[in-house]
Amino acid sequence: MDLFIAIFTGTIIAATPLIFAALGELVVEKSGVLNLGIEGMMLMGAAFAFWAVIAGLPMPVAILAGALGGAAASLLFGVLALTFLTNQYAAGLALAIFGSGVSAFLGRNFGSAPIDALKKIYIPYLSDIPVVGPMLFRFDPMVYFAIVMFFVISWFLYRTKGGLVLRTIGESPETAHAIGYPVIRIRYLAVLFGGLMAGLAGAYLSVAYTPLWVENMTAGKGWISLALVVFATWRPLRVLLGAWLFGGMTILQLQGQALGIAVPSELLSALPYLATIIVLVIISQNRQMLALHFPASLAKPFRPAT
Amino acid sequence: MFNLTRRQFLQYSGAAGAALGTTGLAGIASAQEPLKIGVVYVSPIADIGWTKQHSLGVDAIKAEFGDKVALTVIDNIFMPQDAERVFRELAASGNQLVFGTSFSHGTPMQKVAPRFPKVAFEHCSGIVHLANLGTFEAKYYEGTFVAGAAGAHMSKAGKIGFIGGFPIPDIVGPANALLLGAQSVNPDATCNAIFLNSWFDPGKEKEAANTLLSQGCDVICSMTDTATGVQVAGEGGAWSIGYASDMAKFGSGKQLTAFTLDWSSDYVGAAKGVAAGTWKPEARWDGLAGGVVKMAPYNEAIPADVITKLKQLEADIGSGKIHPYAGELKDQDGNVKVAAGSVLADADIRGMNWFVKGMIGKLG
Q1: Which of A52, A75, A145, B315 has the most crowded CB, counting CB atoms within 10 A?
Q2: Looking at the predicted complex, does its ipTM rise above 0.90?
Q3: Percent of chain B surpassing pLDDT 90
């Protein structure tokens, strides 16, 4: 039972940075903009949050600093892709490389001092329930916040007028523009939101998950988040499930290795990727549904006619 | 000492070339030419870790030679295609001795070295030798053997957890020695091994450490380039063993010891050889005896008599009285690999691709 609890909680925690970053990217892509620079924005978020902690700022401020760091990086992409209408693929890749470089530069002064990680909170009474308590009620606040953000984003996209406008812009910016919506401004907001979320993901890594500074500490999680959005066919619930699936398979393969099951570790290490791809391919069989959720104007530059 | 990034290096070397063009050969006419040495690091110099330990070796050259040496250090060169260009530039710009510090620097150095026969090349963790390319490497397994003994003294469960990058001989061998050291104290000790299949992924390392803790391991040894394993073990109340650098400050007081690397003798030795004109390409492979592997200060929680035993073990391994891979050694399936009374041959140590009995894990 303890092993099961360990696998379950490990999965939830491992999925948290992916949930933040992928949900943020989902909103960006729903507005018709493709930002490939998640890895860079996450690293900026990680660096800023870590910086704030060693500067002695309280933890909530540090996490906010991380989010703002990610947003600042995304603004750079916004200016390139939305104002100057450069190729979004190129601008996004540039941001990924830029963010990695800038975070490494900032990190030169961090040393590798250990910091006090974000504390777990034991929710009173609930965390004392056998089995369920340690499974669900003993996480740090960011884990719960990621779930809250899932509900907020699902609600926003499909239950509010703002979400409808955002999705319209993603489908057909010309139409949205013709009926008077400020396409560029709304896309900017979406890109900034994506940056905030990627920044949160990075902050989670540097101050909560692995609370020490190492260069390029995201180790590819930004790219995995990007892939999750596509494989989840642009639907929030599937992003969430995909992140849990990926996190769960990662933990399971490590457990499998340590138990000494007779499969080479190289193959086990590939398992999370294989499983996520297979499951999401199977659930994406319906091409009509796919077309329905795919933002038709994705990565196409839009200049409002004057 | 210059401490340059790749880009700065390109700018500076361009500027230096221009300066040489304008001032002619005036600079070379100066009487006392410093020994020019180039060093290539695989990653930036952090506070701890692989590259940090190499930078200490370079510092030792500086301390020994003072202003009689001109060092050019270039960091963050991992990809072989980048490395080849950097090695060629270092050799072409007059360095008499060039160090590569990563296995991935091997192929580029083997390509560049023959074109600069008057330049001495030294490759850490290399396996190929040429007329002007020598190698140096550490006997990690001597360190992990002592660390394993320390772990078994302190472990209640007799279960040790090991995290490595890739299942290659340089990692598999030390993992085996870790368990053999533990079994020298507690014959029933076992070791669960996890390979990340990545040189660098702190998140996955944390998950691996948590996995080992959840399976009941109460000593964690992580042979990776971050302190994450030591940190997670400490948070989980388990003992830990650091690698490359002393990682005690990350371990919540639970780091038992660390097998640290000190390459000073390799760096200074090669520099002295080149300065005196006596340098030869060698395959240096030192451990506790040569001081390349050193045990970090033992945790105060270890009883004094145990520390005395561990120090004696260090001395005995150093003197050759105890060999970590002494027979009888059996593999996981119980086949005898080394007969009683003999030891594993050096070539077999460098190529170890099997787990000893008691290791829990599967090699491909």
Answers
A1: A52
A2: no
A3: 76
CA distance B97 to B140: 26
- Residue B55's CB is within 10 A of a number of other CB atoms, namely 21
A60 against A277, higher pLDDT: A60
What's the domain count of chain A? Answer: 1
In a domain, A302, yes or no: no
- Cβ of B362 and A267 within 8 Å? no
Does the distance separating the beta carbons of A114 and B250 come in below 8 Å?
A: yes
Cβ–Cβ contact A214 with B under 8 A:
yes
| Whether the Cβ atoms of residue B167 and residue A265 lie closer than 8 Å to each other | yes
B200–A261 CB contact, under 8 Å: no
Q: Which residues in chain A are closer than 8 Å to B192, comparing Cβ atoms?
A: 258-260
Residue of chain A with shortest Cα separation from B252: A114
Inform me whether the pLDDT recorded for A305 exceeds 50.
yes
Kindly tell me if the per-residue pLDDT of B234 is higher than 90.
Answer: yes
Asked if A217's CB is within 8 angstroms of B214's CB, the reply is: no
- pLDDT of B320 > 70? The answer is yes
The predicted pLDDT at position A45 comes to 96
Contact flag A265-B361 (C-beta cutoff 8 Å): yes
Q: Give domain status of residue A304, yes or no.
A: no
B2-138+263-286 is classed CATH 3.40.50.1820: no
Cis ω for the linkage preceding B328 (within 30 of 0): yes
How far is residue B289's CA from residue B321's CA, in Å, rounded to a whole number? 12
pLDDT tens digit string along A154-178? 999 999 999 999 999 999 999 999 9
Taking an 8 Å cut-off on Cβ atoms, the answer to whether B207 and A260 are in contact is no
Per-residue confidence at A93, pLDDT binned at 50, 70, 90? very high
Does residue A233 lie within any of the structural domains? yes
pLDDT band at B4 (very low <50, low <70, confident <90, very high): low
CATH 3.40.50.2300 positions along chain B are: 2-138+263-286, 140-261+325-360
For helices B50-65 and B264-276, angle between their N-to-C axes, nearest 10 degrees: 40
Residues of chain B contacting residue A108, judged by C-beta atoms under 8 Å apart? 44
Which numeric CATH code is attached to B140-261+325-360?
3.40.50.2300
C-alpha–C-alpha distance, residues B113 and A214, integer Å: 33
Interface test with A, best of B78, B214, B231, B353 (most A CBs within 10 A): B214
Structural domain of A103? 2-293
Reported confidence tier of residue B5, pLDDT bands at 50, 70, 90: low
CB contacts < 8 A (A, B): 125
Quick check: helix, strand or coil at residue A139?
coil
Q: Which of A21, A20, A46 is nearest to A103 (CA)?
A: A46
- Tens digit of each residue's pLDDT (9 = 90 or more) over B277-297: 999 999 999 999 999 999 999
Chain B interface, Cβ < 8 Å to A: 43-44, 46-48, 161, 167, 192-198, 200-208, 210-215, 217, 226-228, 231, 235, 249-250, 360-364
Average pLDDT of span B13-32: 42
CATH of the domain at A73: 1.10.3470
Question: Does the pLDDT of residue B213 top 80, yes or no?
Answer: yes
A1 in contact with B at a CB cutoff of 8 Å? no
* Structure confidence at residue A16 (pLDDT): 96
In a domain, A154, yes or no: yes
Q: Does A97 touch chain B (CB under 8 A)?
A: no
